[in-house]
Predict the 3D structure of the following.
Amino acid sequence: MVAKVQTEMTIDVAGEEVEGSGELRWSSGHLGAGGSFYNHSSRNTTWLNIVKVGEYIDSLNINFRNSFFKKIGDGRSTSFWNDPWLISEPLKDKFPRLARLDSCTNVKVIDRVIRDGENLCFCGSWVREPRGRNSSDLDHLKMLLDQFQGYRSNEDSWVWKLSSKGTFSTKELTSIINSRTFSVNNNFIETLWNNFVPKKVEVFVWRARHRRIPVLEELDKRGIDLHSVRCPICDGSIESVDHSLILCPLANDIWLKVLNWWGFGGLTNWSINEIFKGKANCVMSETGAKIL
């Protein structure tokens, strides 16, 4: 299903919050307005990728695609059946049979919840009168509508439930994703980020510490058929992450030259994880410790 999210919501770009324009369409199990987007996305790789991003974020237990809902102002731009406004899901998902009986599937809230004196009441327009189970669903719907607080003078607006401010920003979403992706527990190596070095270096170090470098030992573990797993440079040992980055004579010479350049002593703990845990045995300056 499709949500048409007005991008008057705040969107963060490169750390700065700016006001967007036009519409942001988002595919969601609980956000939607008709099936046109689904049909369009099935032919458009860009939109399919956007949908996959939403699915991936949900897989991190963030519930992103259900995090948008409509806050009612004057009720003129919110679809009564298709937008999540009264409860956490669209009413057409909660009451699918009633939605199909409505004579106008994209009717607005203002056209179905009308003021009768000081009270608000539901004004249905049906293809045929609800009977049996549909009648029970209608009673349930009216009970939910009793919770509606009424209209306001401002326009309807989208609210993002994952933000305390209610406005969507990519910066805040990134922070939420990072908190789930890079959380530290007993099964994972602590993630170290350091503004002193370029991002690509930080990423490489993270991959090295998690054995995500495509050295011969790791490729062999993943079932790739290799002629040999020995180091192609020195042929003195298996090409592991530690060997290729530290223990290989060529890498070792580079380490010693760099350490001598910085005025350090030699390292005795030759392991990537020990170095970046700060347990390597060498004397270094404050700047050198920050780099390592």
